[in-house]
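Protocol step 4 of 6: structure prediction from sequence.
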Amino acid sequence: MSSLAPTLAQPAAQSRDETPEHLIERLARAGRAAQRELARLDDSAKAAALRAAAAALRAGEPEILAANAQDVAAGEANGLTGAMLDRLRLDSARLAAIADAVEQVAALPDPVGQVIDTANRPNGLVLSRVRVPIGLIGIIYESRPNVTADAAALCLRSGNAVLLRGGSEAVYSNRAIQAALASGLAAAGVPADAIQLVPTQDRAAVGAMLQAAGLIDMIVPRGGKSLVARVQADARVPVLAHLDGICHTYVHSAADPEMARAIALNAKLRRTGICGAMETLLLDAAFPASQEVVSALLDAGCELRGDARARSLDRRVIPATTDDWDTEYLDAILSVAVVDGLDAALAHIAAHSSAHTDVIVTADPAAAERFLAEVDSAIVMVNASSQFADGGEFGLGAEIGIATGRLHARGPVALEGLTTYKWQVRGTGQVRP
C-alpha cells in the first residue's frame, strides 16, 4: 500500500479563473502561516519531522521512481542532452541518497537561536546577535528532482517555509517527492504548507514569485544562465544567486604528475553535468607531464578544445574559440590552455572564472597559499577535485545551492545561509540621555 496520503498526492490545484498572481499570493500566505508555526518548534521536533519525511521518501519509492520514469521518457522524447538526463534520472540508490541527505540535515545542529556574539555596553545594556529564520523562501529550479528534498529539508531545519517551483522536465518527480515529504511532515505534526510546490508550469507563476515582495522573503534560483539572469533582472525579492560553474583546474609546474592526472580525470569526467565539474584545464608550461594528462583525458572520451600550445600536445585536441573559455559545457568537453606560470594562471582565472570553484594542483606550499589568497571564488581548493564542491561533501548535509556572489553567503549554502539575525537588547531601566 502506498504511504502517500491521497490528499497530498498533488499540490493545491490552481482554479481555472485564478491568476498566477493570486495563486502565488495564496500559496505564500499559507506558507507564511506555516512558518509562524515552525518558529515555535524546538530542535527535537524539527529533527523528528525530517526523519519522518525521510522515511516517507523511502516508503514512497515505487511512486517516486514511476513518476521519474515519466519525466525521463518525456526528456528523451524532447531531446534533452545526456547531461540533463543524468541530472534528472533517479534510481533506488539515488533516491536512498536523497533520503539519507534529509536525515543528515535532521542530525545537524539547529542554527536558530544560536548566539553569534554578545557585547556589554558601558551603560549596562547587554546586546546579542541571535540567528533567526529568514521566513518564506522561494526556490526556482530546473531539472534536478533532488533539489525538492534538499531545499525542503534545509528550509525546515532552519525554521523557514519553502515555496518550490521546479522545471517542467521533472514535474512528475517533483510532485511525487513533495507529496512524500508533506505526508511525513503531517505525520509528525508539522503543517504540510511548510513545504509547498507551485502546481503549474505556467512561466507567469515564476514572474509572480519574483514580484511577491513582502510575501516571499528570498528567492534562490538553481538552473542555467538564462534562468538566473531572468531572476536577477526581474526580482523585487532579494536573490541568492548561483551563476555558471566555470571551474578551473591549474596544474602548477610543481604538481605531482600522477596526482594531476587523477584530479583532472575526476574533476571533468566523474559527473560532467554538475556545477562543480571542471570546464577549463590550465597546464603550466613548465609542468613536465602535460602530454600525459591531455592524452589520459582524450583516451577517456573527453573532447578537448585548446590553444595552440595545448594542440601541440596531442593532435586530437581541436582549436578552441574565444567563447570556449567562458562556456559551462556540462558535458564531456573541456577547454585547455598552456600558461606561463602562476601569474598567467591567476590572470586567466580572473578573466574567465564564474567565481564558483577553482583548483590548483601543486607540491609548492607557497604557490598553493598564494592561489588560495588571490583567487576570488566562493570555493578555492588545493590538490583536490572540484567535484568536491558540494554541501554534503562539506559536511553540511545538503545544500540549497552554491552562491557565487559576495553578499550574505558564499559557496554551498546550507543552514546558516538560510538564517539572518536580530539584535536582542537587555536593559535594567536605561533611558537615553
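Step 5 (inspection) to follow. The chain has two domains: 20-240+408-424, 247-388.
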